[in-house]
């Protein structure tokens, strides 16, 4: 028993020595390991309230969707249309989204379905769009002092052809199936002669744009073509590389100039603001400069009656073609 007591006494004394040494070493280790007040637990006062940082507001304004179809400049002037759309965005205080499509029918479809709000169109597509789903006029440009344009029948400058009648049996280019100057007008001329494009020309091609029709004639790919007078004149004044190789042999009567239109159902308030931006552009130095590059004097209000001649021509051609059906 005495030995057991002695053993426990020795064990207790040893344990106290170990604790004493540990008490000395632990603070030293904390210093050596880099512990500091910064590593102490942070006390959080849940009663204290902090103001949350404001969340940036999301712009809920939908972009104005604009398509450019019926231009009065060649493709080389397209950049000025883009600049004008940026100008409109600035004046309206809302984003503008450019919608690109390849032909007039596609743009009319987007206007019909409400996927486009505003569009630059040709006179022919406006007439059909007005009739089919209520496309609405907004404004029209004044170019070269007028709000009318013409269909030019062109041939190569060295061609022996002098009159439209000389194109019988030759190859001919139309631009777009819905184009007034690039398809309807020459088709009506042929109907008055008791002919159709297929019966009169040896070959008919659709170039899709007036630019391509001009270059196709200049490069002798086709013998003749019907083109928009505004586009031919613009190219002839700015970059006559192709127009200088062509010659105008016929100029049609005047027709209502390609207008700017809006889809049916567009807010009257928004439509009024857009119209105002167009009508006042020539009064603003920045807008005036862009219009100058587009060779547009200004934009003006226009009445639906300005397109009656196209409407009548379209109806007459359809009637004549109907008479030829078996």
What descriptors fit this protein?
326 residues, alpha/beta, D-Maltodextrin-Binding Protein, domain 2, five-stranded mixed β-sheet, 11 helices, 43% helix
| First and last CA, distance | 136 Å
How many structural domains?
Answer: 2
Mean pLDDT score, rounded?
85
Order of helices and strands: HEHEHEHEEEEHHEHEHEEEHHEH
CATH top level of the largest domain is Alpha Beta
Which architecture name of the largest domain does CATH use? 3-Layer(aba) Sandwich
Count the helices. How many? 11
Model description:
By secondary structure, the chain is α/β, with parallel strands linked by helices. It has two domains: 135 residues, Periplasmic binding protein-like II (D-Maltodextrin-Binding Protein, domain 2, 3-Layer(aba) Sandwich); 109 residues, D-Maltodextrin-Binding Protein, domain 2, CATH 3.40.190.10. The protein is 43% helix and 17% strand. The strands form three sheets. A six-stranded mixed beta sheet has the order 2-1-3-12-4-13. Helix 2 links the parallel strand 1 and strand 2. Helix 4 packs across helix 11 and helix 5 crosses helix 11. 35% of the residues are buried.
